[in-house]
Amino acid sequence: MRIDIISIFPEYFTPLEVSLVGKARERGILDIRLHQLRDWTHDVHKTVDDTPYGGGPGMVMKPEVWGEAIDAVIAQGGPEGAGLPRMIVPTPSGRPFTQRVALEYAREPWLLFTPARYEGIDARVVDEYRSRLRVDEVSIGDYVLAGGEAAVLVIVETVARLLPGVIGNAQSVADDSFAPGPMENLLEGPVYTKPPVWRGHPVPEILLSGHHARIARWRRDQALRRTFEMRPDLIARLDPESLDERDREV
Ligand SMILES: O=C(OCc1ccccc1)c1cn[nH]c1
Predict the structure, then answer these.
(1) Residue nearest (by alpha carbon) to ligand 1 atom 6
(2) Catalytic annotation on 176?
């Protein structure tokens, strides 16, 4: 997968050189390229923003600079047969970024991220590129960041761990909370490792029993309980068909 990121703070993405994503890049699973938005300005101050039409606080990012930057990245061409990139614009006013959306992105050959600063990017940029590319305005949560860069880190990490070969154990990805299937809309229950007793706290006996069917049942009960407690909103979204009679007792 090829990923292009255009930002006025490309150094913000140094974390993508380490850990999981870093290894995926070393192994050629991910090709991440960073671009300094200011390289497409033409004034001595390298201006990327201006005051909002209609008045109001803050600044808006200029369409001309973004247009030249995005055109240049597209012109570089993507992976063989990838065609044009899918453009992703993190914004509080976007559609929710979920594990299901991450799975969609993990199947794309080429993603282009355009994180905004200030009050956002002039709306005509999205309008212009919708006519040529698939453009997704996505929100990672109901809060306002100073810029979209942190959201890009979140999205790239979520997508990267779904790529084949990135996470050693593919099963752990399939068992993820929110992954489509039996665990979708359920939160993970508690996890334990050695020692069997720590500061007087024992590990639940069932987990030491080696009885896999009972362990799976216990884990599902814990997931249902945790979901009821932490995210009642998700319970409403559970497909009643996916609940067996034992579930209903929880
Ligand atoms: O703050 C965010 O993006 C940066 C941004 C973009 C446009 C205007 C203001 C701020 C964000 C919050 N959830 N998901 C994304």
Answers:
(1) 91
(2) yes
| 2-7 and 86-96 strand pairing | unpaired
Taking the domains of the chain in order of start, what are their residue ranges? Answer: 2-160, 175-249
pTM of the model: 0.93
Which residues have CB under 6 Å of ligand 1?
90-92, 116, 119-120, 139-141, 143-145, 147-148, 151
What's the CATH code, domain 2-160? Answer: 3.40.1280.10
The yes-or-no answer on residue 161 being catalytic is yes
Catalytic-role residue among 38, 161, 225, 226 = 161
221: which 2 tokens?
């009960």
The mean pLDDT value of the chain amounts to 94
Confidence of residue 163 (pLDDT cuts 50, 70, 90): very high
Closest ligand 1 atom to residue 140 Cα is 14
Q: Residue 153 C-alpha to ligand 1 middle, in angstroms?
A: 13
State in Å: Cα 30 to ligand 1 middle.
25
Q: What is the ipTM of this complex?
A: 0.99
CA gap 131, 206 in Å, rounded: 56
Query: Topology of 175-249 in CATH?
Result: Trp Operon Repressor; Chain A (1.10.1270)
